[in-house]
Amino acid sequence: MAKSITYVGLDVHAETIAVGLAEAEGEVRFYGTIPNTAEALRKLTAKLSKSGAQLEFCYEAGPCGYGVQRALAKLGFTCLVVSPSLIPRRPGDRIKTDRRDALMLSRLLRSGDLEGIWVPDEEHEAMRDLVRSRRQSYNDLREAKQKLCSFLLRHGLRFPGKSNWTKAYWRWLGEQKAFAYPHQQQVLEEYKHHIRQIEARCERIDATMEEAVRGWHLRPVVEALQALRGIGLIVATTIVAEIGDLRRFSHPRQLMAWLGLVPCEHSSGAKTRRGSITKTGNALARTMLIEAGWSYRLPARQTHYYMRRIAPLNLPEPIKERAWTAQVRLCRRYRHLALAGKPTPKVVTAIARELAGFVWDIACRVCEAMPNQKPKRTAT
Fold this sequence. Notes:
A hairpin with an 8-residue loop joins strand 6 (263-265) and strand 7. The chain folds into 3 domains: 5-111, Nucleotidyltransferase, domain 5 (2-Layer Sandwich), CATH 3.30.420; 122-214, no CATH class; 219-369, no CATH class. The protein starts with a strand and ends in an 11-residue tail after the last helix. By secondary structure, it is an alpha/beta fold. The chain has helices spanning 38-48, 67-74, 98-111, 122-154, 167-174, 182-214, 219-225, 233-243, 252-258, 283-293, 304-310, 317-339, 344-369; strands at residues 5-12, 16-23, 28-35, 54-60, 78-82, 263-265, 274-277. The strands form 2 sheets. A 5-stranded mixed β-sheet has the order 3-2-1-4-5. Strands 6-7 form a two-stranded antiparallel sheet. The longest helix is centred in the middle third of the chain and has 33 residues, at 122-154. The protein contains 13 helices and 7 strands. Helix 8 runs antiparallel to helix 10 (283-293).
């Protein structure tokens, strides 16, 4: 006789978890609120399992991370982590409470309308934290430089050279002393000091990332992706850390759609309307691919810098050949779209979309050759 299934929806918060239950062929009821601790989850599963029912859990991805999923996995239970943007919601529903959210999740889990996201292991999540910390640091650096430039512009100070933030620019900054009040000079010095601090932080994070990649089990994938033009260590590490196991996409078009690089569409009847890209999925990985796509505006070539960068990696010849094929195709594609009169941002986005397909292909080839790596081609 088959076991009955109880679907458990969890509304997770920092201190509490609201629990909703949906029987396989019965009512949907609110169980109650428990503390957000591993011991409370263990007691919950033990109590719900007394009747012999099979338990399936789900909760929304949020700031609390994957701790609940990992705790339930250690207890031997299945738990889906669901993206909030993919949860069906009724437009007229204007009331939101923890109780309603838990009941809604359990009901949707029972009906099969929820699809879980890929959950990284702790090592992968640590690498992802490092990548995002680097991105935030460089955003802070850009913002600090913009504030300094705005301060100088307000006081009519303009650099006579060609480029900012060169050695000549810093020498020019050190010569600026013509302020009416001494505390304005102090403001300038504080801006300069703040930029120097952020630059040092960025350098430390870059060095830490290089060291972390050397001990990462996905290091072969990161190295193989560097064979592609426009993808260095930082870009490759960011792509792998943010996307995770690329083999879970059964086709490169799924990866392109997950990255939000496919055009949105609103077609009805005989009318076909396509607009800008959807921009769903991971924004940082999408940004890195678009930045890499700019390098294909130049003719296909293997420069001295490129050969010097990939020489220490000792990449297999099939990976190098695949990367060269990608470069020839994407450079030709860029020229074709540019000559057709397409705007440059659209051309670069189209190149990034196709580049994602080559990233998927190379990553899957390397993962299949890695020891103790089983295929995981499942739905995203």
